[in-house]
Amino acid sequence: MASKLSLRWRGQKLENLERSPFSRTEDGLADYRNAPVAALRQLEGLLLMDTDFSGADFSKMRLHAVRFANCRFDRADFTGVSEQDSLFDSCSFICTDWRVGHIGREHSQYRRSVFESPKLAKTNFYNPRFEECRFAGAWKGVDFNTSGFWGCEFAGNFEDIMFRGDYLYASERARYGAPRDTGLHNTSFTAAELHWVGLAGGCAVDRVEMPRSNNAFICDLPRLFRDEASLLDGAASELQQVLKKYLDVIRPGPVREGVVAQQLIIVSRHDLVSVSRSDVLGGAAYDRLHASAAVADPTLVH
Question: The CATH number of 2-296 is which of 1.10.1060.10, 2.160.20.80, 1.10.260.40, 3.40.190.10?
Answer without folding.
Answer: 2.160.20.80
